[in-house]
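Researcher: Please predict.
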Amino acid sequence: IRAGSEPAQPVDIPSDGGGTVAGGTTGGGPTGGGPTYGGSTGGGTTGGGTQAGGGTPPPSAPQVGFVDASLAPGVTLSIDGSSISSNGSRELRPGTYTARCQAGPLSESTQITVSPGGRTPVVCYAPARVVRVSVTSTDAERPWMSVVVDGQAQGQTPTQVALPVGRHTIIVRRRGYEVVGEDMVTVDVPPRFTSASLDPLPLTFQVRAAQ
């Protein structure tokens, strides 16, 4: 205390401002004329900015697709050689595959594309095929003949028979007559990827009186 001067009086410092506030201004701005450090409270964006690992990550893209198979009776389906013998779904990685409908030795193939998260329908049909069987003769008379399909009698010429999917043999016969040339014909009715009807197949045998 300087001699002759009044004793110093205590100074009350308000608790809500005055002077420098570390970390930013409290109470809406600088108080007491001092500088403000750090800007907004907390040193910037509340919580120190975007938090590491915060937010919902984007969903990952599906890594597989599905083949939905629908098969006619007696028909199997294979995808790149892997057999699917019944109706249902199979999970596959996205890409292009060879689909094959098969019935015994007969088959039809097509290309299919499997997309991520998608469903690819594959339908194997088994349309019947109509065969119209008739005969011609080198004789003046036009005889009738019995038609036999896969060993079973199917009426007399002229006639038509509906053949299911598969491989079939057709012959004609009658006592006292013989076939000129090929006496047995093989008819293939393959499975298909379309339900469209097959065109009727004309089949004519030439016959003559037995020598």
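Model: The longest strand covers residues 95-103.
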